[in-house]
Amino acid sequence: MPELSIVDAVRIPQDVIFRELNGEGVILDLESGTYFGLDAVDARIWQLCMEHGSLQAVWKSCSANSTRRGETLRSDLLAFVNELSTKRLLAPQS
Known about the structure:
The chain has three helices and five strands, in the order ββββαααβ. By secondary structure, it is an alpha+beta fold. It has one domain. The strands form two sheets. It has a three-stranded antiparallel β-sheet. The protein has a two-stranded antiparallel ribbon with strand order 1-5.
């Protein structure tokens, strides 16, 4: 699977669910049983991915509300979404 870039858009696969727990979150793939724990920052990124789809929009929203800026934030965002994509918890939008 090719790596996602900042110009890509993502979607949540049909068998993947998210639950927020005290500001943190858990993602579960019902088909494979894969689950992934999220801290508060990652949970917010996940919610922004659900809301916007566009990784560029997620990056801009995070930039406005984060102490991390520019290339560092972009790099961290892409590393996170690519990890989720590798685990099939996030997919490129077709």
